């Protein structure tokens, strides 16, 4: 069976669309700590946990590279995902994460912080689970 020119063009466009959607998919953040310039502007998917002292530092530690932590850029708006995480850190129990666990699934963009390190700006918070132990 011979394909008509229209069918050939349609198949070509489908292949291009599939290739483009794959090229734009988010990748892993692992390695950005060691080569920030290669990752700046890239979209990443992070499954990990939040670690914070409650005052100075809030980082996300990805499950896939647990030896790397990435600072979360401050919120731009009051309903920003970074604000939601900050409220969980500060309003449940003691400030920080010493008395609670916060796990997250998020999309983020890798940014360059003022000190030259790689950090993240959360673009979408898919899930946040806060575990706070019961009082004894």
Please sum up the structure shown.
This protein is α+β, with helices and mostly antiparallel strands. The chain has 3 helices and 5 strands.
What does this structure look like?
There is one protein chain. The chain is of the alpha+beta class and 136 residues long. It has helices at 5-23, 36-39, 81-91, and strands at 43-52, 58-62, 70-72, 101-112, 118-131. The chain has a 5-stranded mixed β-barrel with strand order 1-2-3-5-4. The longest helix has 19 residues, at 5-23. The chain starts with a helix and ends in a 5-residue tail after the last strand.
Q: Which range does the strand content fall in?
A: 25-35%
Order of adjacent strands in the largest pleated sheet:
1-2-3-5-4
| Gross geometry | globular
Report the uncertain regions: 18-24
Q: The biggest beta sheet, please?
A: 5 strands, mixed, barrel
N- and C-termini, Cα separation: 75 Å
Helical/strand content category: alpha+beta
Our Rg estimate from Cα atoms comes to: 20 Å
Number of helices: 3
Portion in helices: 25-40%
Number of strands: 5
What does the average pLDDT come to?
Answer: 83
What is the ordering of alpha helices and beta strands?
HHEEEHEE
Keywords: Signal
Signal peptide: 1-23
Strand and helix map with partners:
Blueprint: H1 5-23, H2 36-39, E1 43-52, E2 58-62, E3 70-72, H3 81-91, E4 101-112, E5 118-131
Parallel strand pairs: 3-5
Antiparallel strand pairs: 1-2, 1-4, 2-3, 4-5
Signal peptide: 1-23
Keywords: Signal
Name the features.
136 residues, alpha+beta, 3 helices, 5 strands, 25% helix
